Amino acid sequence: MDNAALIRIADALERLSPPPLPAPDFDAASAFIWHTGPERLDPVADVSRVDLGLLIGINRARDILHENTLHFAKGLPANNALLWGARGMGKSSLVKAIHADINAHYPVILVELSREDLPSVTALLRHLRAAPDRRFILFCDDLSFSHDDQHYKSLKAVLDGGIEGRPENVIFYATSNRRHLMPRDMIENERSTAISPGEAVEEKVSLSDRFGLWLGFHPCTQDEYLAMIDGYCAAHGLTVAPDTLRAEAIEWQATRGSRSGRVAWQFFTDLAARHGVTI
Q1: Does residue 200 contact residue 236 with C-beta atoms inside 8 Å?
Q2: Which of 36, 54, 119, 128 has the greatest number of C-beta atoms within 10 Å?
Q3: Which of 218, 217, 226, 219 is nearest to 252 (CA)?
Q4: Under DSSP, is residue 234 helix (H, G, I), strand (E, B) or coil?
Q5: 3-state secondary structure (DSSP) of residue 212
Q6: What is the 3-state composition of the chain as percent helix, strand, coil, each rounded to the nearest 5?
Q7: DSSP state of 276
Q8: Is 9 helix (H, G, I), strand (E, B) or coil?
């Protein structure tokens, strides 16, 4: 075999099994996104988030998660947290806002991991474990599983850590619309058709039990919805007659068929545009 053929074979093998990526530069940013193909941590220069003080109606969840994160940032024991409940009520916004607030006093790095990339989490944890002088919040937004989804097995590496244990410098926060991370009708269906109903879905349902904190988010009241909009107006210097603002805000949520922090922000975005205010 000639040298040219050997070189082509070597190049092909290198493409199939590329060399390990260099250690991430964690000085590049306070937030990163984990990608695969190739596996890498990309810095995020400007995180999309709102100020912690603008998150209305979730005071209990805010205080508990803030205290837990502060303990973690100080090197004290802290729990993984599952933020579950109503759509648009600020679950992911709360995680990002608390990170910003804590990071202003104690260096903590936020690392976002998508559900689809959970199978690669062992490689990610290897990078984070190799930086023991840093502390990381590993964040997975909109986490849920279907009946034939095997990604939940990868999540156990984050929550339990296997034989190595979860890295001491890593904590895991996830958001989900589902308390048990899978649809209730799927749980009942598997129980009713299983030979051993009590064990049929235990492995998946018990996954949520591995979170030390369960923080529930519920639909907001009309007063909370209006308070959110008042907060946005005050923060951005937008003045509207109270009666007009109230009537327009109620009409907006009526056309959407729901009230939430997301709906309040969407209304305010439209309101600010109509009044020529940039946000």
Answers
A1: no
A2: 128
A3: 226
A4: helix
A5: coil
A6: 50, 15, 40
A7: T
A8: helix
CA distance 168 to 84: 25
- Pair type for strands 81-85 and 213-217: parallel
Regions in the chain scoring below 50 on pLDDT: 187-188, 190-191, 193-197, 200
* 81: enclosing H helix or E strand: strand 81-85
225-276 pLDDT per residue, tens: 999 999 999 999 999 999 999 999 999 999 988 899 999 999 999 999 999 9
The span from the CA of 183 to the CA of 34, in Å, is 27
CB 33 within 8 A of CB 112: yes
Q: Which amino acid does the sequence have at 248? A: E
Spatial CA neighbour of 47 closest among 93, 113, 105: 93
Query: What phi, psi does 94 have (nearest 5°)?
Result: -65, -45
